[in-house]
């Protein structure tokens, strides 16, 4: 049996699309020029938006009828 990390690494972009591209969006903190901002990604990893605050990212995702998931 694969451990969780091995399993997660084995999931393809196509699999992610099937599993929830229209239901889940990932929020990831980023840093640029000393400022932190938050990127919103579709389940396939495509960046769809950048916002200045995590709360704004969560609201944006929910307004689009999707469930936010954080990536640290």
Helix content: 25-40%
Assembly form of the protein: single chain
**Could you give a short account of the major beta sheet?**
4 strands, mixed
Q: Average pLDDT across residues? A: 82
User: If helices are DSSP runs of H or I spanning 4 or more residues, what is the number of helices?
Assistant: 3
Strand content: 35-45%
The largest beta-sheet arranges its strands as 3-2-1-4
**Can you write the helix and strand succession as a string?**
HHEEEHE
Poorly predicted tracts of residues: none
Which descriptor suits the 3D outline? Answer: globular
The assigned structural class equals: alpha+beta
Radius of gyration computed on alpha carbons: 13 Å
* Strand segment tally: 4
Termini separation (Å)?
A: 26 Å
Overview of this structure, please?
The radius of gyration is 13 Å and the shape is globular. It is built from 3 helices and 4 strands. The model has no long low-confidence stretch (mean pLDDT 82). It has a 4-stranded mixed sheet with strand order 3-2-1-4, covered by helices on one side. It is an alpha+beta fold and 72 residues long.
Task: Kindly summarize this structure in a few lines.
The protein is α+β, with helices and mostly antiparallel strands and 72 residues long. The chain has 3 helices and 4 strands, in the order H-H-E-E-E-H-E.
């Amino acid at each position: 049996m694969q451990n969780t990390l091995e399993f997660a690494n084995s999931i393809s972009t196509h699999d992610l699309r099937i599993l929830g591209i229209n239901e889940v969006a990932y929020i990831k903190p980023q840093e640029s020029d000393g400022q932190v901002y938050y990127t919103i990604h579709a389940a396939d990893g495509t960046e769809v938006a950048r916002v200045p605050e995590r709360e704004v990212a969560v609201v944006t995702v929910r307004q689009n009828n999707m469930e936010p998931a954080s990536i640290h």
